[in-house]
Amino acid sequence: MSKHYLIKEAAEILNISTNKIRFYEKKGLIKPLRDEENGYRYFTENELIKLQTILMYRELNLSIEGIKDIFEDGSKDNMLNHFHAQWEAINNQIHKMQLIQYSLEEIMDSIYESEDESYKEKIISIIELMHKTWKVKSEWKDKWNFNSWARTYDESVVKDIGTLKFYKKYDMLLDTVFKKAVAGRERSINVLEIGVGTGNLAARFLDEKYNIIGIDQSRDMLNVAKEKFSDLKLRLGDFLKIPFENHKFDVIVSTYAFHHLTEKEKVIAIEEMLRVLKPDGRIVIGDLMFESELDKENMLKSLTKAEVEEIEDEYYSIIEFLIEYFKKHNKRLEMTKIDELVFIVEVN
Ligand SMILES: C[S@@+](CC[C@H](N)C(=O)[O-])C[C@H]1O[C@@H](n2cnc3c(N)ncnc32)[C@H](O)[C@@H]1O
Predict the structure, then answer these.
(1) Domain coordinates in residue numbering, the chain
(2) pLDDT tens, 234-283?
(3) 287 in ligand 1 pocket by Cβ < 6 Å?
(4) Taking the CB of the first residue and of the last residue of the chain, which one, N or C, has fewer CB atoms within 10 A?
(5) Does domain 146-347 bear CATH number 3.40.50.720?
(6) By C-alpha distance, which of 289, 247, 291 is closest to 266?
């Protein structure tokens, strides 16, 4: 018979209070045996391991309900879901805290630098801006439901149904983004792909042995990408809260993803990309775009109602606006036309 421990012994071994053990029992996470005669709890080695696992998962801030579900379900997928959700929650907190920290820095500077009472108004405007920025960063929603598209995405790229033929030059676009991204760079560069989808662009980098990590807001897209390319490093993450530290990447690439951001969101996504990019880094985006507002107006006039609706369901970039946004950060943008609505913009 395997060894059994009393609650006091279990608490000593794990260096926790007996109350904590009783709490986990009350929540249904553990089920110690009971002595039939005296009612004492007895813990098997397995129950101790379970308790230790609970303690470790709590260190990752996993909720009691989450841990219970991991134990009950037992599958790898379910476990991954919980860890992904926790990763997302932690990333949100980091971004929120960072925004508060930057705002406090600005506030302190304005108090130091002001020679009159004007800093009081400045504080209010800094906090208002912080509030607006967080609203944009936290309210993005996947209204297209990419999770449901993940399993059929590659097939639909090939079929390219619809009259606008967005994917006609898909392979050429991906090849050109890859070439532009790596031109003149060492093979040891760190590359980030945003909106990695099923991994078709990342595969070009993997094939040539570049370090690439892909993020996507859709877990199912990530699952498909991982099934196709087991070596590909992937994380859940979005344009507006990139889950990496400042100045980590030499190159950022993205295809067919940026047009899911509104104009306001694009401005913040650009700040985010520049935050994680090294100062001499490069951004290469291949996507659906118009060169100018005027071009957009003219083009929409020439299309059918259904085609216009299809375009207006998303937010194609206006390249002349992108040029201005990047110029504010002292970055220069060059564009290459691939097809009627498909462009590559390279930012250096
Ligand atoms: C049309 S697919 C393109 C996939 C892939 N890049 C390609 O070129 O085949 C768009 C992808 O961008 C992702 N995406 C859309 N908006 C995003 C956002 N705000 N942040 C991160 N990924 C996003 C979607 O989940 C989806 O996987």
Answers:
(1) 4-73, 76-139, 146-347
(2) 999 999 999 999 999 999 999 999 999 999 999 999 999 999 999 999 99
(3) no
(4) N
(5) no
(6) 289
